[in-house]
Amino acid sequence: MHSRPVGTVTRGTTGHNRLRRVDRWLTATQGHRLRCAVDPLVVDLGYGAHPATAVELFTRLRAVAPRTEVVGLEIEPDRVRRALPLRRTGLDFRLGGFEVPLPGRRPVLLRAFNVLRQYPVDEVPGHWDLLRSRLGPGGLAVDGTCDELGRRATWVTLDADGPVSLTLSAKFTAVERPSDVAERLPKVLIHRNVPGEAVHRFLQAFDRCWEEAAAVASFGRRQRFLHACAAMRRAGWPLLDSPARWRLGEVTVAWSAVAPADG
Question: Which InterPro entries does the record match to this protein (predicted)?
Answer without folding.
Answer: SAM-dependent_MTases_sf
